[in-house]
Amino acid sequence: MFSKFEEWYRDRHDYARAWKEKSSGKVFGCFCSYVPEEILVAANILPVRVLGSHEPQDVTEPHLFGMFCPFCRDVLAQGLKGRYEYLDGITLAQSCIHLRQAYRSWEQHVDQPFSYYLPHPMSVQSPAAVPYLREELENYKKAVEEFTGSKITNDDLDRGIRILNENREAMHELYKHRIGPEPKLSGKEAMWVTVSSTWIDKEEHTAEIRRVLKLIEEREMDRECGAKLMFVGSENDDIEFINMVESVGATVVVDDHCTGTRYFWNSTADDMNDRIEAIAKRYVERPACPSKDHPVRTRFPHILKLAKDFDVQGVILIQQKFCDPHEADMVPLRKYLEENDIPCLFLEFDVTVPLGPFRIRVEAFLEMVGEEDLF
Amino acid sequence: MITAGVDVGAKTVKIVVLRDREVVATAKDLSGFDQAKVASELLAQALEKANVTQGDLAGICSTGAGRKIVSEATHSVTEVSAGAKGSLFINPDVRTVIDVGAEEGRAIRCTEKGKVEDFAVNEKCAAGSGAFTESMARALEVDVAELGKLSLGSDASVPMNAQCAVFAESEVVSLLHAETPKQDISKAIHDAIASRITSMARRIGLNKEVLVIGGVALNVGFIRSLNEAIEMDVIVADDPEFVNALGAALIAAERAN
Please, which pLDDT band fits residue A223 given cuts at 50, 70 and 90? Predict the structure, then answer.
């Protein structure tokens, strides 16, 4: 049922090349999930989230200091190895300095016709955040218009907003099938869907979700659900890891990742006269990345609500090594969840993950959360 | 009721045979390359010692890093659950278990019923485990069994970074070049492991009583350093290497009921 998403997940570059040939459109690489894709879709550009490949690499050492996170190094490696050679442009929306460093290095060392650094408010809780981002998005829109040679009209923006919102709505509907005693899809299948949504043409992706939604009610998973878990962390597209977790008696039913719910959870208002302000509001008000979630940690109650709504028995805290924003949240987040009776397992991720030792920890965690059976 | 626990660890396989919750036989051997074969042969030996056959067993529970390869096992649990179970059986007042084996150090916090509340495992590097003491003993050219005793002769506090086993070894070499007495270096090594283990245990919370299990619990130098680091007296399990196998055998008995 999810084979199309699996194929898209696996053959991401082939898809983008084929899309470009078919549509004669441009493809932009997005560093970070804060890039306003509505504007790109309005300009008939395919936004493609740039992610790593989870392979050891030896090409970034001259460019990034060792304490920068493995994810940003993996991202830069993809550029240096020419795997995104089809990109017409790149955009970084400011969130953390690690990815900014990878972006700046990419800009210097990878030939790219268009590159844009989009300043993005770090204090999203400030009343000045929306007007600030609005101005920055206007500048970004102008830069994109100059690059493509075409004006982006209000009709174009309405189309961009509609296409993004339709995808977000379909994702929400799909996630509803992960609630309840017998989820209709595994965490691995959901990961294929959510992660691929960050680079597939949104209309095509939405149509495929809609096709699945027609069939999913009748579906039964081919295994027991086991313990229902939530993943929390920065980006996570690690299929091997989620597959391992689900092979030892668990199903991942929800997440708080920027390649998961944080990416699609809220919509852009489609009834505001000022479309750019509507887009700015959406990105300011979306479930926050910890790099922007201060002074109040708004993500904690949001994560707890997701955990309760999806009735999880435990949370796996996935910490990308050296990811400072998430490290800053890790101690209080764990305390907060445990005080609310949600047990947590902390795991530190690198570019590759040691599946053997992690398996033992996950199994011990599952024994811990389901101990009525054992003791 | 007779049950057996089989703990397939990174370095050794341990077996405990229980009859009505009394230990009637134990066996231990190096894991070797063919862990499945070693586990099978060792199980046969332990059963012979206990004068029972496999058919007499109500259950066999495996645990440890290689627990999945034990074909005779009727159940399987992780070393975290087995460690908590075995520790509470030894001493019902235990609330924190520190388990230092050949390749992993673990801290387990449990309830009075032996329910695991939280646990932590050392990350990636072997610097908080038995393999570390072995490599340090090699660097000092002393027998690993002597390393602990050697450190008892020192009250010095020589700072050492044990974040990485390989770099720590080069630190030992530097200390030797600086003509630091071997006993002081030995103390520094144990302080470093104890500090690393304590830091991990503090992450989950240290509650009295603290029981130390695993092969490294036999190292008197480590235990002294650990007492100092956690600022309380730990209890060392009798036959600390067998506690996980004991816990597994107890779980096999509970499952059989």
Answer: confident
Q: Are residues B126 and B225 in the same domain?
A: yes
What digits encode the pLDDT tens for the residues A248-292? Answer: 999 999 999 999 999 999 999 999 999 999 999 999 999 999 999
- Give yes or no: residues B221 and B179 share one domain: yes
- CB-CB: which of A348, A363, A371 is closest to B115? A371
3 state DSSP class of B2: strand
Q: Are A375 and B114 within 8 A, CB to CB?
A: yes
CA dihedral angle for residue A353, residue A358, residue A362, residue A363, rounded to 10 degrees: 140
Q: How far apart are CA B221 and CA A246, in angstroms?
A: 42
What CATH number has the domain bearing residue B225? 3.30.420.40
Q: Which domains does chain A have, with CATH numbers?
A: 11-149 (3.40.50.11890), 158-374 (3.40.50.11900)
Contact B119 A368 (CB under 8 A): yes
Q: Which of A348, A364, A375 sits opposite B119 (nearest CB)?
A: A364
- What number is the ipTM of this complex? 0.79
B142 lies in the same domain as B220: yes
CA A268 to CA A248: how far, in whole Å? Answer: 39
Q: What is the pLDDT of residues A143-152, one digit of tens each?
A: 999 999 999 9
- Shared domain for B1 and B75, answered yes or no, is yes
Quick one: DSSP state of residue B239? S
Parent domain of B102: 92-236
**Into how many domains does chain B fold?**
2
Residue scoring higher pLDDT (A49 or B137):
A49
Task: Find, among A257, A242, A269, the residue nearest to A355 by Cα.
Answer: A242
Question: Does B138 share its domain with B51?
Answer: no
DSSP string for A154-214: HHHHHHHHHHHHHHHHHHHHHHHTT-SSS-SS-HHHHHHHHHHTTTS-HHHHHHHHHHHHH
pTM of the predicted protein model? 0.88
H/E element holding B138? Answer: helix B130-140
